[in-house]
Amino acid sequence: MTCFPQVFAVFSPSLSKSNHLNCFYEGHTLIPFLEKITAKFKLEKPIVVADAGLLSNDNIKALGEKNNEYIIGARLKNESEKIKQHILQKYQTRQQRSNRKL
Length: 102
What we know:
Structural class: alpha+beta
Helix content: 40-55%
Strand content: 5-15%
Number of strands: 4
Number of domains: 1
Number of helices: 3
């Protein structure tokens, strides 16, 4: 039987370098949390699924360096037109393939 550990942690807000309360961005917690649960559960290569709150260039770079697979949700309204068109084109291609199978 395959097990899929589901783990969470609660982090208290921390102070940013400018000493302002930084309670809206929790992205700095992803990599330390991932390292902790990887060791605790002796995981070889966990797949990370996260929301846009954990999306940052540093996190994506760190996940890539560790060869982690990941799914991170992003807000389309914040993306460039080029990225939006690319996503739309991929979606339309998948829809066309699905319609052919019917």
